[in-house]
Structure formats: C-alpha cells, structure tokens
Amino acid sequence: MADPSTSPPLTRASVAEARKLIEPFVHRTPVISSSSLSELASSPAPAIGEAGTGAEEKGKAKPKLRLWFKCENFQKVGAFKARGAFHAIERLKREPGWLEGGGRERGVVTHSSGNHAQALSLAARTNNIPAYIVMPSISAPPKIAATKGYGANVIFSGSTSVEREAVTAKVIEDTGARLVPPYDHPDIILGQGTLGLEFQEQVETLMAEKAEKGGEKPTKKKGLDAIIAPCGGGGMLSGVALSCEGTGIRVFGAEPSFQGADDAKRGFESGSRITSVKTLTIADGLRTPVGAIPWSVIYDRRLVSAFFSVSESQIKSAMRLAYERLKVVIEPSSAVPLAVALYDEAFRELVEREAGDEGWDVGIVFSGGNVGLDALGALFAEGKE
Amino acid sequence: MADPSTSPPLTRASVAEARKLIEPFVHRTPVISSSSLSELASSPAPAIGEAGTGAEEKGKAKPKLRLWFKCENFQKVGAFKARGAFHAIERLKREPGWLEGGGRERGVVTHSSGNHAQALSLAARTNNIPAYIVMPSISAPPKIAATKGYGANVIFSGSTSVEREAVTAKVIEDTGARLVPPYDHPDIILGQGTLGLEFQEQVETLMAEKAEKGGEKPTKKKGLDAIIAPCGGGGMLSGVALSCEGTGIRVFGAEPSFQGADDAKRGFESGSRITSVKTLTIADGLRTPVGAIPWSVIYDRRLVSAFFSVSESQIKSAMRLAYERLKVVIEPSSAVPLAVALYDEAFRELVEREAGDEGWDVGIVFSGGNVGLDALGALFAEGKE
Questions:
Q1: Please, are residues A358 and A68 in contact by the beta-carbon 8 Å criterion?
Q2: Is there a contact between A324 and B373 (Cβ–Cβ < 8 Å)?
Q3: A140 touching chain B per CB within 8 A
C-alpha cells in the first residue's frame, strides 16, 4: 500500500480522481429500480422478527420511498472491494520509488478470507504482481479455491487476529511485499467511494429518461435524496460519504444488531469508536468494527447523518425480497440497507417527517453477491425461517 | 384471443410488428456476458450426473464458445410470458368488432398455474380488462397469491387437463370471456419472438462497443451465430426461430431428458410430434408437450436446427453457476439451455466441428426467474446434491 502520507486528501474531488484511475479495470455496475419494492417500502412495515425485540409489531410510519439499487454484486469478484483493491495498486504504481525499488516483484499482501482477498488477488494478477493472502486454515474451501483461482499465493494461519498478523508480518519480512489492508487506508476509501459517484450520475440519468418518457419537461435537477450503505470496517461507507460531500445527499450507515454487530451505531451515538466486536451475524461482511480512518470521515467530519440497525430476521426477509422480486443474488450483508428502508421504524419515521408528501429517492447499496448456494439453501430451507 | 385466422403470417416481419405493439408495456431486458462462464464452456465438459447416463464421463469436445445471456428473468412478471400476453391483448383490441361487442367487459380467460397466468393477469389489468384464471386447487399458495395480486379472478378446478378445460368452458359460457392459450396461438408466438429480435440487436451493439474499446476497426458485421432456447409448449422457441429466419443465426431447442420431458427432441428426430408427456422434471416450465402451431414452425418449416436434452443434475449444476458466477436468479427451466452449452457433448461437438478455431457467439435465453427461496433451499440444501 502506498504510504498514507502520500495519499490524496479525503475529498469528493479525490474520489473523482480515483475513479479515473480505476475506470479501465472495474465495471460501471448497473442501477435498477423496482416499483413493487418501492410500493412495499411506502406501506407500513410488517411485523418481522423475534418477540421482545420491538420488531414484532407492525410499523406505523408511512414514508414515501422510491428505491434505487446500485448492483455491486455484479462488480468484478462479485463485490465493491474490487474498486479499492485496483485503486490501491494504481496508487502504489505511482508512488515515487516503488517500481524502481523492485516493488512489482515483491508484491502485495493482506490477511482476509473474504471479498478483499479475491479483489486484491485479481488486481495484482491484472498487473502481474504477486499477491500473498493470509487466511485462517479453517476458511471455507470454496473461498480458498476462489482466491487461488485468481492466482494468489494462499498462506494459512491460525484464526485469531494475533496469529494472522504474525503470519502476515513474516510474509512481509520474507518477501518485502507491501501490505494492502481491507479498509483502514485512504486509498481504499477513495476507491470504494467511486461507486457513490456513479450511483449519483446513474440515478440522475434514469430519472431524466423516465421524465422524458412520461412527457415531463426537465425542471429542477433531480437525483438521490439519500444513500444507505452497509458498514463493516467502514471503508465503503466513508468513501460513499465523501462522494456525497457538498451535494446535499444524506448518507446513512446500516448494520446488523445481532450480538453487538452495530458497533458503529453505538459508537456514533455515544461519541466514541468501538474497536472490538465479536458477533456471528449472518451478514458476515459486517462483523468487523469500524476502522480509525473511516471513522474520521464518518464521525469526526459528520459526513454520515445517522446509523440504523436491523435484526437477523429482517435481513433474511429483505434478502428474500431481493431474490424473489428483483431476481438478483446478493449476500446477506447486502440486504442490510434494504432491511433498514423496509423495516426500521426510526429510519422510516425520519423520512416521513423530513420528506413529507414528496417523498425521497433513496439509494440502496447492494455491496456484493458472494454467497454459495449451499449456504443459501441452509439459510432458506423450508421451515428454517 | 383474436381469431387465429386474423393473425399476421408467421414471419420475421410480423415479429417486428408485434414488437412495436408491445414495446410500451414490456421491458427491453438486459443482455449480459461472462468471461468466466465462456471460459468454462470452452473447456472440456466436467463429468456431471448419474452413473450409466453417459454424463458421468468427462467430455472430449473443446468448442470455442462465447456466451451471451438474454435476461427475461428481469422481464415483467419475471418471465418472457409477458410478451405474448401483452401481444394477445393488443391484437384482441384491434380485432374488428371485439371492442364494440363488449369484449373489454367480458374479459379474458386461461388455465395455467404458472408464468402465463400472471402475465395474462397483468396484461389484462393494465388494459382494464377482467381476467379469469383457472388453476388446479392444489397449486402452490404463493402462485395463487401472486396471480390474485395482479388482480385476476382465480377459479379453482381439479388438476387433470379434462377437469381444467371443463371449468374453463364454464367460465367462457358464464362470462363470454375470450380464451388466451399459453402457447398454441400465432399471436402468442409472435409476441414471445420479440425477445429474439432484441437479443440480436443487443449483442451486435455490445460486440461493436467491445471492438471499439479494444481499438478494433468495425469490419464485418458481427453478432450471434446461434441461439439456444428452452422448449416447453414451444411458443417461445418457435417465436425466436421466426425472429432469426433469414439471418443465418441457427436456433436450437433445449429440453430436460427426465421422464421423457424431451418430447420435442424425440418428435423432431422421429418426424412426428409427441402430444402427451408425463414428467416431474425440476424444470417445471418445460413439462408440457410442444403445441401444434409451434411445431409447424419448428419442424415443418425446419426453422429449428436441432434439439438437445440434459439431465436433472446438469440443470442443477448450470443453475448453480448462474447464481454463483452471474449473480442472477433464474428458475430451473432457464438453466436448461446453459446446461446444453456447458455439458451436452453432441452440441459441443457440433460447435467444435462447424465453428472451428473462430468459435461461436451463442445466445442463451434465460426464460424466467420465478422460483421461491424455499424451493431453492430445498433444491440446494447441503448434502442434497
């Protein structure tokens, strides 16, 4: 990873620069809408979930919501992580001395068993750079196979963070490879933020086309009123927040509530970042506590307006709707922002209050689609829900 | 349904006319490609399936295949059936005397428990016409709910075809509603065929864009070499075949082999249409024998080049790849053409022989995406496959 001190400032303009760098390598993923899901979101929320959680009662708020979905599940490697990884490599290539010092031969390293591992592997292979991926030896075999499939050198470690970091340090010592962390770095944040810029433009275009088709004259500038993005380590949420700075588009973070996975929400409300979380939420991409640099954007600069959290049942229910109505495959983490829009009474009251009769156009980030059919089968097999 | 004697002739030009009629009502669904699936299709087929079926051995053919997918799973009501239903209604509206004779008040009727029922219900509701749908009382509750959700009057019958037809006749007697059959009518065939025209244009555009991006000069006209479409009643396959007449694009039919579901293949090879099939293939949209009018296009006019059939395991394997690689939700029937491209040795040898080193661009029709997550869970729950 390029030295953070050489990174561009964390601004909307830097996100636009990042976009230019990665444009040749990543997909401009489609944005879709659904009148049936927008209708559903505009009706009182059904009761979903466990008794005693507050979610067992039918909602009262009746906000007017038009939903738009940014499909990063169709991104390379099946998740937005490709953006940050390609940006990290492009920035490394531009770091003074990196190439001359044999950087390309020494390669890059990370510890991850998820989408970041595959994203970094692909970005490295595309640039003919060796990638070393440190993974717990207990990782699911398909994830190991997928990462190897992108040409990475997979190195196993124990599953605690101390064990993983020790093995990573050893790899760096042995190879001179540069560490590319999954979220806590400006270059990663700026790379992920590029999806936010695309999202804004795409919705404006789609709305203009729709207005034209309906015979409306182009009047005031239209576009998104808000974006809800999932928050794990916070790299993507903070990048999206940067992409919206100065536009008036509000940015909200979405988390699972299970076993304290809503660390960013709790930290945001108490005023101090929570640095440790232990949760087995089905939204496995969101088990990580939010990182320090993302936090500086999210909280210190207040570029995120609020956080909302949803239950496991609500996540599953939203996931089911994405499959059955939108016909797209998303992983559980991706269903969290949709669950907020459909079921979170606090969010829905906020929209009802602030948007009034005109309603809001809300962008929902589908962050990824990497879920095996076996895992899906286990989640939704008859009677299990 | 408009009297077949008033229908336009079954030609490519009539498909283009149908397209103009339905364009305001249906989606121009996206076409996607996947380098990973094209690579897979261009490697020898893996052994998939039951011992003794011939599918347990690794394939030898190594055709060069570039796959393109027409995503009718994103169509209104989640399947291509919307095209035929909207076309049927538009044609009815233009039938001399229908409107004046109170046709709009009398409505339309069909017997179906699947995608056609929902498609006709939506097309009727859009036009403020009552729809009567005769369904076996044992139909799955979500299907009944979905059809009612589109505003149709659902009328229950026994589950044999004799019982269903008796109830349908009674509805016609009572209401004067016009019968709109699911596939055996020229207007339905022409409506479904519109997806073929779009597919051809979209692939040409995508190939031209790709060539331009890669710095190639536009040379010879490029486009699809072949289309593989699933065959149930044959309405869509025959429509797609019409859309390709005179273009040089070869059209192939794909069926499940389970319990004789490959009736069109057997009929095509023996020279006589098979009119009765009893199968419980997981590709439930393809359990129907091919209809007489589709057959006249498919066989008598030889607008379909050949049929191929695949096993249940091959269908499930193709379905898994669509989910895991393409991140799209398709129903089992939609996976049948992909299974042919990936696993059917006869098809693959044909391409290897005829396309040589240059290979073929093959269009795969994803016909629909209506599958419940419960059913999916049951299909793919761990250990079940």
A1: no
A2: yes
A3: no
CA distance B81 to chain A (A): 16
Question: Tokens in use for B4?
Answer: 């077949």
SS3 content of chain A, % helix, strand, coil (to 5): 50, 15, 35
CATH topology assigned to domain B12-79+185-379: Rossmann fold (3.40.50)
Of B128, B156, B148, B119, which Cα lies nearest the Cα of B27? Answer: B119
A36 catalytic residue (yes or no): no
- pLDDT category, A385, cuts 50, 70, 90? very low
B187/B196 Cα distance (integer angstroms) = 15
Contacts made by residues B200-207, CB under 8 angstroms, sequence distance 24+: B200/B224, B200/B243, B200/B244, B200/B247, B200/B249, B202/B30, B202/B31, B202/B70, B203/B31, B203/B68, B203/B361, B203/B363, B206/B31, B206/B33, B206/B68, B207/B361
- Whether domain A12-79+185-380 has CATH 3.10.450.50: no
Q: What is the pLDDT of residues B37-83, one digit of tens each?
A: 999 999 999 888 665 555 567 788 999 999 999 999 999 999 999 99
Is the CB of A327 inside 8 Å of chain B's CB atoms? yes
pLDDT tens for chain B, 385 residues long, are 667 777 899 999 999 999 999 999 999 999 999 988 999 999 999 888 665 555 567 788 999 999 999 999 999 999 999 999 999 999 999 999 999 999 999 999 999 888 999 999 999 999 999 999 999 998 888 888 889 999 999 999 998 888 999 999 999 999 999 999 999 999 999 999 999 999 999 999 999 988 887 777 655 568 999 999 999 999 999 999 999 999 999 999 999 999 999 999 999 999 999 999 999 999 999 999 999 999 999 999 999 999 999 999 999 999 999 999 999 999 999 999 999 999 999 999 999 999 999 999 999 999 999 998 888 888 887 554 4
Distance from CA of B382 to the nearest CA of A (A): 5
C-beta of residue A191 within 8 angstroms of C-beta of residue A180:
no
Kindly report, residue by residue over A172-208, the tens digit of the pLDDT: 999 999 999 999 999 999 999 999 999 999 999 999 9
Please provide the DSSP assignment of B86-120 as one string: HHHHHHHHTSTTTTTTTHHHH-EEEE-SSHHHHHH
**Dihedral (CA of A180, A182, A188, A192) sign:** positive
Asked whether the domain spanning B80-179 has the same topology as the one spanning B12-79+185-379, the reply is: yes
Sign of CA dihedral A283, A287, A293, A295: positive
Question: Where do the domains of chain B lie?
Answer: 12-79+185-379, 80-179
Helices A235-244 and A12-22 sit at what angle, rounded to 10 degrees? Answer: 110
Q: How many residues does chain A have?
A: 385
How many beta-carbon pairs below 8 A join chains A and B?
68
Chain B residues within 8 A of A324 when measuring between CB atoms: 329, 372-373
Contact B378 A382 (CB under 8 A): yes
Q: How far apart are the first and last CA of chain A?
A: 43
Q: Which CATH number fits domain B80-179: 3.40.50.1100, 1.10.40.50, 3.30.420.40, 3.40.50.880?
A: 3.40.50.1100
Residue B166 is which amino acid?
Answer: A
A141 chain-B contacts, CB cut-off 8 A: none
Distance CA B310, CA A232 (A): 43
What are the two backbone dihedrals, phi and then psi, of residue B161, each rounded to the nearest 5 degrees? -70, -30
The torsion angle over the Cα atoms of residues A361, A362, A367 and A373, rounded to 10 degrees, is -90
Q: Which amino acid is at A43?
A: S
Q: Contact B323/A373, CB-based, under 8 Å?
A: yes
- Tell me if chain B has a CB within 8 Å of the CB of A328: yes
B328/A328 CB distance under 8 A: yes
